[in-house]
Amino acid sequence: MDKFLNVVQKVSDWIWGLPLIITLTAVGLYMTVLLKFFQFRYPLYIMKQTFGSVFKKPKGEGTVTPLQALTSALSSTIGAANIVGVPAAIMFGGPGAVFWMWVIAIFGMALKFSESVLAVHYREKNREGEYVGGPMYYITKGLKMKWLGIFFAFALMIEVIPSLMVQGNSLAGSVAQTFSVSPLITGIITSVIIGLIVIGGIKRVGKTTELFVPFMALLYVGAALLVVIIHIDQFPNVLSLIFSSAFQPVAAVGGFAGAALSDIIRWGFARGLYSNEAGFGTAPIAHAAAKTDHPVRQGFWAIVGIFVDTIVVCTATAFVILSTGVWTKMGASKDTDALATVAFTETFGTVGSYIVTISLCFFVLSTALVLVFYGVKQAEFLFGVKMGHVMKVIYLGAIIVGSVGGAKVIWSFLDIALASILLPNLLAIVLLSKKVKELKEEFFTSEQYYLLDIKKDKNVNSSL
């Protein structure tokens, strides 16, 4: 069994090395060029249409508000990786990896925009009157490849099981270490909470994440900002480190072993892509339920999702690690998962470790919540609403099993399962890229959408 698992691990490491990084980057660049670099050309307009419209009544039809769709999607992307993944990128790729994380996030915006636009365009209403969509729908309806849509849905439905086990184990381990609570008790409480929320469908999930996500992001990012302010004298040095080491090999310093330029770029790209899940096909499932008058308008919310996840939350972690200097201490590379905790503890004492643990708990709990929702939607697509209820029970059980460290063999297949949903989705984005371009051009040239918004802004400004 050990030899078999070693083979699985080697295959997984190879797939999630250069092959997928190159593939994701290539598709992101392709969509950016095809869409005429729109994320560079309309940043202020995109912000106005998203964060600037939070308190306005949503336009068009849908099941949840655009903000609720965004927070639901962010619940999946803002997770443990934001706290433990970024330090790993710095330890193995150096400070310059942060720069490349920013670069790939910008190109990843075109990817996430595209899949979310397609999800809204090809969405449907289910028997319960909820809007549903995602890769399984645009592959089936847009590409007329039902077999591939079924494959995607089945692969994601199964992939959620090991993902939930890992999330449950991460949450239970953190709680046990900080608060000495039994992992089994943590697992049961977590599954009950998630079960009560998910049973209410996307509306309850959206309302929960709408409160949950801003709170957990502000708690963590606010604490990180305090760390940076306390070490404000290091801020110029941190910026210098990030930009100067982004284009050249980095020498060893203390506990940092040094990194070649290829490693710097690779770790930066990997962290950016894996954190914001651009191209994975998961976020579109949440965005498909949003109230909107045009697919492109909801696509803007997908873009700001990457901004929040990578540019804000991941960067907050990076600045904490670099400004406190914990990345240069001896032995730092041996336990990268604990670096954020070490940095916060050195700054705030015991309170610092509580901040990281509580943030991690919120991150993991919200991720698990939306993973269950995603998995249930795949079951409904494949077998109907009743099977969705069955899978809820299986998923909640997986959280409990994972919390006590059970079925770890299944975890070994997690990365391979992720690749099995990623590749069909990337293929669909490329094959349906002309439809994305068509919808984007329609939005920006129509008197109903972009041009109307611009006229309204001019009228408002002229009246002031």
From TrEMBL:
A Pfam family this chain is assigned to: Na_Ala_symp
Subcellular locations according to the entry: Cell membrane
Regions crossing the membrane: 14-38, 69-93, 99-120, 147-166, 178-199, 211-232, 238-261, 300-322, 354-374, 381-404, 410-432
Main location per the UniProt record: membrane
Membrane topology annotation: Multi-pass membrane protein
Keywords assigned by UniProt, alphabetized: Cell membrane, Membrane, Symport, Transmembrane, Transmembrane helix, Transport
GO molecular function: amino acid:sodium symporter activity
UniProt-listed PANTHER family: AGSS FAMILY TRANSPORTER, SODIUM-ALANINE, TRANSCRIPTIONAL REGULATOR, LRP FAMILY
Protein name: Amino acid carrier protein
Source species: Priestia filamentosa
